[in-house]
Design a protein that fits this description.
The complex is a heterodimer of chains A (about 120) and B (about 120). With about 120 residues, chain A is an all-beta fold. In chain A, about 0% of the residues lie in helices and about 50% in strands. The chains are: A mainly beta (about 120), B mainly beta (about 120).
Chain lengths: ~120, ~120
């Protein structure tokens, strides 16, 4: 069965500092990987996705993520955090083109940004 | 994405009552999903459907049912609401065509409180 682990429940960074959110997955084949962001009281917005090809993917709002097959990881990064980045971030994995086609989500990482 | 709607957006009900949450999409996508979001668990799959008259159970389907009588709608019914079903519920859609190239698109969510 596939699973996703986000080891950091809560992270606090200073505005302007760099950010890395960790995501590890367990999946038997080549995964499709996603990062979603959820602002308080809001729905889910896709930040970026990896299907194949270049393992470093660029997303919206200045975010990027790197797929490392050997480490089963898909960590999210941003070089300089803005106060508006405070939100909850979810990593998700899925086949989507075969089988169940549903996503498996991590438990989320809540990001606080200090001024 | 504004083309998937959920109603109501907020609902308070009592234990034992039947509740139906609506999900409507205008993209004619065959694949639709219901997830629930709880603190510390991320999003978990309740039910999903690949098309009209097709429904399947996810990991947390006990106490829930869905029906798919047309492509646009996938209503989620709580047969007898329990306090453990207090949660935020998200509906999602996903196209059949080019399945390996799209992400899931989520609705805005329904916050359900069972007293």
């Amino acid at each position: 069965a596939q699973s996703v682990t986000q080891p950091d429940i809560h992270i606090t960074v200073s505005e302007g500092a760099s950010l890395e959110l960790r995501c590890n997955y367990s999946y038997g084949a080549t995964p499709y990987l996603f990062w979603y962001v959820q602002s308080p009281g809001q729905g889910l917005q896709l930040l970026l996705k990896y299907f194949s090809g270049d393992t470093l993917v660029q997303g919206i709002k200045g975010f990027e993520a790197e797929f490392k097959r050997s480490q089963s990881s898909f960590n999210l990064r941003k070089p300089s955090v803005h106060w508006s980045d405070a939100a909850e971030y979810f990593c998700a994995v899925g086949p989507l083109d075969t089988g169940r086609r549903a996503l498996t989500f991590g438990s989320g990482t809540r990001l606080q940004v200090q001024p | 994405d504004a083309e998937i709607t959920q109603s109501p957006r907020h609902k308070i009900t009592e234990t034992g009552r039947q509740v139906t949450l609506a999900c409507h999409q205008t993209w004619n996508h065959n694949n639709m999903f219901w997830y629930r979001q709880d603190l510390g668990h991320g999003l978990r799959l309740i039910h999903y459907s690949y098309g009209v008259h097709d429904t399947n159970k996810g990991e947390v389907s006990d106490g829930y049912s869905v029906s798919r009588s047309n492509t646009e709608d996938l209503p989620l019914t709580l047969e007898s609401a329990a306090s453990s079903q207090t949660s935020v519920y998200f509906c999602a859609r996903y196209p059949d065509r080019d399945r390996g190239h799209w992400e899931q698109f989520f609705g805005p969510g329904t916050r359900l409180t069972v007293l």
